Amino acid sequence: MRCERVYFFAHPEQELREVEWLHYGRYLHERMQGKPAQYITHRQEFYGREFRVTPDVLIPRPETELLVEAVLQRRSGARLIVDVGTGSGAVAVTLALETGACVVACDISRAALAVASGNAERLGARIGFVASDLLSSFGDGCVDVVVSNPPYVAEVDRDSLQPEVRDWEPGLALFAGPAGLDIYTRLVPEAFRVLRPGGLLALEIGFGQADAVSALASGWSDLEVLPDLAGIPRVIVCEKP
In CATH, which superfamily holds the domain spanning 57-239? Predict the structure, then answer.
């Protein structure tokens, strides 16, 4: 119908036209096959803004807003922020609009970068985009904040995921080796290299990974583990000495 939900409730007497029934039937069939509703509507809200999503990117989750909050609380005045594995660009766009900082978003997937670039343009965020395997494209000691919601699902947990996640969201953005720690093992030392002294690293983590990721950052200072609304450790923040 191409209208807001409030219109639907305000006009219960309106009947669907034939073309609308046809579209609805197709969308319903896709949903019955397990396709996430966000990939059907191509929409997902994050931090009060609507982002376009496709099967090339993960669907932004509400708990990832805690990652944004952690950066805003610790480094709202940062000059240069790098979002590693940007996906839809939800974190990068939000931080750019909330802080006014120079934000660079990187991803190994060029298809994901295309989605993120479109979101930045639609929402008016000025962001640089770099096709990069983690932080390999960045120089030493030049970044104020490294933020990332990386792949962290263990391969052994593949079969236990919801079918909507396992069968439809991109595996490249989900899985990270036998224990789900492969990306953290590479990203933490790379972040140490590119950050300025006192720079901030903020990472989203998976269930039960707080101790292992904290151990990887044992040489950092002011390390803190932040729980989500369910009390599950969700974000780790630490600073380069």
Answer: Vaccinia Virus protein VP39 (3.40.50.150)
Q: What angle do the packed helices 110-123 and 90-99 form, to 10 degrees? A: 30
Q: What is the pLDDT along the chain (241 residues), one digit of tens a residue?
A: 888 889 989 999 999 999 999 999 999 999 999 999 999 999 999 999 999 999 999 999 999 999 999 999 998 889 999 999 999 999 999 999 999 999 999 999 999 999 999 999 999 999 999 999 999 999 999 999 999 999 999 999 999 999 999 999 999 999 999 999 999 999 999 999 999 999 999 999 999 999 999 999 999 999 999 999 999 999 999 999 9
Q: Residue 130: phi, psi to the nearest 5?
A: -135, 130
Q: What's the rounded Cα separation, in Å, for the pair 205 and 64?
A: 10
Structure token digits, residue 127: 């962001």
Helix (H), strand (E) at residue 214: helix 210-216
Closest CA to 202 of 142, 116, 144, 151: 144
**C-beta separation of 147 from 81 below 8 A:** yes
| CA separation for the pair 112, 96 (Å, rounded) | 18
Domain boundaries, the chain: 57-239
Q: Give φ, ψ of 201 to 5 degrees.
A: -115, 125
- Rg (alpha carbons) of the chain, rounded to whole number: 19
pTM: 0.91
